[in-house]
Each structure stands twice: as C-alpha cells, then as structure tokens.
Write a structure and sequence with these properties.
This protein has about 210 residues and is an alpha/beta fold. The protein has one domain: P-loop containing nucleotide triphosphate hydrolases (Rossmann fold, 3-Layer(aba) Sandwich). The chain has a 5-stranded parallel β-sheet with strand order 2-6-1-7-8, sandwiched between helices. Helix 1 crosses helix 9, helix 2 crosses helix 4 and helix 4 packs parallel to helix 8. The radius of gyration is 16 Å and the shape is globular. The two termini are about 20 Å apart.
Amino acid sequence: MSAVVAIDGPAGSGKSSVARALADALGYSFLDTGAMYRAVTVEALARGLDPHDGAALGELAGSLELVLTPRVLVNGRDVEDELRSEAVNAAVSLVAAHRAVRAAMVERQREWAARQPVGTVAEGRDTATVVFPHAALKVFLTASLEERQRRRGDESAASVARRDAVDTSREASPLRPAPEACVVDTTGVAVDDVVKEIVACLATRTSS
C-alpha cells in the first residue's frame, strides 16, 4: 500500500478542510471516509431502512456501488448534495455505529488507498485507530464545541454534541486519538497553519 496519513477528529474539527489542503501539499490523494458513511445513510433513508437495523444496513453497505470522485455517486445516482442534509446529519452516527456497516466500509477504504499511485490523506473517525493502523502519520484534530458548531453551520451545538456522544461511546471503532497521534487543536487556527504543523510532524516522524 502507498503511504497514508490518517486524520481523525470529531465533527467540525476541520478534518475535511485540513485533509484536502494537506493532500494538495503532499501531492497525495484525498479520502473522505465520512462521505462514505453519509452515502450509505442517504441510500438507507431513501429505502426507508431503520437506522438501528444493523443487519439490513450492513447488507446495504456491502452491496452499494460507491464512487467518490469527483462527486459521490451511489449506484450511479449523484448524492453529493444530499450528504449534509438535516436528515442525514441526524442519522449518520447511528448508521455508522453498526459493526457490519463499519466492516464493509473499512474494506472499501483500504482497497481505495491501495489503488493510489503516491499516497493518501484519509480523514474520518477511526482512520488511524482501525482503518490504517500502520499509517505513516496519525493525526487527531480537536477544537472547542463552539468553534466546531460555528464551522458546521448546518447543525446546532446540541446536534454536534449528540454526535460526539454517539461517536465516542459506540462499541464498534469509537472515536479516540491513537496513542501515537499528533494532536492539533484547530480552534482559531488557519487551515494553512494546521497543515504546516502536520507537515512538520510528518517530517519528524519519518526522519526518526
């Protein structure tokens, strides 16, 4: 597998913006694992599946045709504009908590990274702890709840806090920093400055 930088963190911590900018800086591909779970959630809601039905959701996650670039397609249907709808925001953490769903997505994520010619910057909730345990660099982004809610203007602070609770307490792959992760607080920090800190951390890890 090509080199991987794995970035985890709670909702609104800046993962997507930072990961995209870091991928550009390194010349790597970018993998938004959260978009994959949101795509499954979009399709689950469209089919009327219960977000608590792990067996049905796991079967769905394993059977979907999922294309990530340049826009997210599910079975040939463009769902990009539905990924951050209010309904998906409310259900995605429940859908993603199921072991069967996570197992199907982890397999897809590893296969995707293995196909990249240079390297991958992957961001999500368990990319460093579960998906890519041997990543060249593991990063955990944090930020205050107020800052994270501000960034996620489509969600209330209560919604963000609720997702935090689900993500950190779920039995399957809970959100937590990897022991060796480079932890960066992004509160009030520009994306470019966060990227510089991560690049410096990568240089230190790879030279040691």
